[in-house]
Amino acid sequence: MTEMQVISGTALPIGWKHIPLKHNLRRLSEKSKKGGKVVALENIESWTGRAIETESVFDGDGVDFRRGDILFGKLRPYLAKVYLAENAGEAVGDLWALRPQDHIEPRFAAYQLLEPGFIDRVNGSTTGAKMPRAEWGFVGSIKVPTPPIETQTAIARFLDRETGLIDGLIEKKTRFIALLKEKEKAAISRFVRRGLDRNTLTIDSGVDWRGRVPAHWVRGRMKDHFRQEKRQGYETLTVLSVYREFGVIEKSSRDDNINKTPEDLTKYQLVKPNNLVINKMKAWQGSMGIAQMRGITSPDYVVMRPIGEHDPRYMHHYLRAQPMPWVYRLISNGIRTDQWRMEAEKFLGLPVFMPPIEEQRRIADRIDVELERIRSLITLTERSIDLLREKRSALITAAVTGKIDVRAAA
User: For position 335, what pLDDT does the model report?
Assistant: First the structure.
């Protein structure tokens, strides 16, 4: 470890100084006149600084930046949107364009802005409840540990190598999770469409998108299993929402739902266990499911009560498995993708081939076993990714604050 000295009550290696950020990075403000490549908040990955390509079109004037400048997201700074520019461009929206001064290595400065302690200080200074933003007057005055530029370069090289290794592991594990999720979808689709016995006799269903079905399964229509109803006036019950990933769950259990719940819930619809709830605008994405609890949901959704004979667990998986979302897309109406709408009458007219009720239950049991196995693997892998991300952040903190001497390692 390096020899330590005390500066302003905080231990720093010899040669390091606490310098206000605005003396290291100059905030750019000149409006763009070149019309270069546009970068917005959504083009920057949180905590890694990777560029994300999107098809979004942005209006308004931006700020010119050049290669080596750093973009920092001032809106919701806890997202840690920091980008070291590889090429010249135009920063739009809630981004600061910051130019490293001659005594600053750009890569070191970018890592410094990604340091969790720095992000916490910036986030703690924000104003605005719904759209919290940082102010440069405060952020620029934050004193940051600043070593000689040779040390900055060594730290940047060290972190480039070490974070690169960690990011590579995270990428592999992320791909593994994606493969597991695809395997899960394929297994569910196979079980609900063909049953558990691969050798069972099948016949042509006569429906293009359905293909062959077990010969003993009975053809019907969705209207044989569901009937729409709308019961209101239960505003004291728990608010439920529909997710394509989870089905019908308590809305408060997620913090990523941008639709605000109104104060007046008198028009919200009653949902009972085993009711089918459909988001008409997102049915083509698989946003529907069989409810397991009693509650209320948006008046814009469709709620249907079960009729006829079917196992709710089997039906839940069947309605959400491929190719059903694709089928819902075929029967939806709308000019643009985000306006496609599936009407209840068209859904109820869809053909369905159902196994005997006991077979439905066996299929549902098998799916439960498969889901438990696959999701346990996903959970373990996600935990390992979280640990790697924690290690990445801790490494950055230790390096840019002088807690470890990286010169030999770099």
Answer: 76
